[in-house]
Amino acid sequence: ITILAIESSCDESACAIVRNGKEILSNVVATQIEVHEKFGGVLPEVASRLHVEQISAVIDEAVEKAGISVADVDAIAYTRGPGLIGSLHVGVQAAKTLAWAYHKPLLPIHHIKSHIFANNLITNLKFPLLALVVSGGHSEIVYMKDDNSYEILGQTQDDAIGEAYDKVARVLHLGYPGGPKIDKLAKGVESLYKLPQPKTQGEFDLSFSGLKSGVLQFVDRCKRKGETYDDATLAASFQETALNEIMDKLVKAIDTVEVNQVLLAGGVAANSRLREKMDEAFKDRKEELILPPLWVCTDNAAMVAVAGYFAYKNEAFGDFSQSAKPSLKVMDIQK
Ligand code: ATP
Ligand code: MG
Ligand code: FE
Known about the structure:
Blueprint: E1 2-7, E2 12-19, E3 23-31, H1 33-37, H2 44-66, E4 75-81, H3 85-102, E5 106-110, H4 111-117, E6 129-134, E7 139-144, E8 151-155, H5 161-171, H6 178-186, H7 209-225, H8 231-254, E9 261-265, H9 272-282, E10 288-290, H10 294-297, H11 302-313
Parallel strand pairs: 1-4, 4-5, 6-9, 9-10
Antiparallel strand pairs: 1-2, 2-3, 6-7, 7-8
The protein binds adenosine-5'-triphosphate, magnesium ion (MG) and fe (iii) ion.
């Protein structure tokens, strides 16, 4: 089964062609980071315009690199949501156009499922599994009994972890995207500043907005009092508090399920400190720990093609009436 997939949910225009959810024939990503860096974050209007400018060339390049014709693929997968409406729209239209022109079935895909299925590119997923999804828009602990089920055991009550990283980076004038910059700055640095501990309702839920405000207040207080603080120590203190919250809930959640694998998914999975903590927490456990390489973590279309392959096997086909859905829920995919 060969799937051509398109991803445009945020600030990456991407197209990939993947065989059997595994063999990458091509994987082209055009990132807009350089443009958004100038604004200190993703401007939705700018993002959709750049997608319009880039998507055709990205698709052409993916088809050319794969060395096949669109006529040879079995289905067209695309990210239907969640994401920025204007950005999603461009990918949805491109996918529908290809499906129409080449008489191919459509596979609408949930972006977070793609982040999880991305791991199949580097290993064989063995269900049931537990996925820690940590990205720019999501922070979830997900239990998947099989390739077609999805149960959220815990999730953020407010901000996503990646959002918190990006906001804290802004306070420290590190630029966008903030995650990798904080990761680098905090490396090997002791977390000496006391910041508010997250409080949550649900047992496995997460929270990052109090911590984020805590960092802002810390900086304001120092400025008011004319005190100095160390950027790297503050970055490390934020990171330790945020990651300890995640690890604490993950370890609690895993004791309520039987799984073969535990895997990381989403952009924040690239974080080096989180990976250290995962290694440490799982070194003596029976579950297999999967830490995907960085290119698997960040937005790309190969992961959409993998999710598309499983959707194809489950006959989860879509149709031309479906449009982009910025607040798409995993189980809504067929509606
Ligand atoms: P979503 O997947 O929830 O729709 P998104 O697609 O914008 O959101 P991703 O592209 O998966 O998110 O991830 C981007 C996020 O990952 C950004 O918030 C970025 O700061 C963060 N990130 C990337 N690398 C690192 C890192 N090394 N440490 C921490 N955060 C990181
Ligand atoms: Mg992104
Ligand atoms: Fe993403």
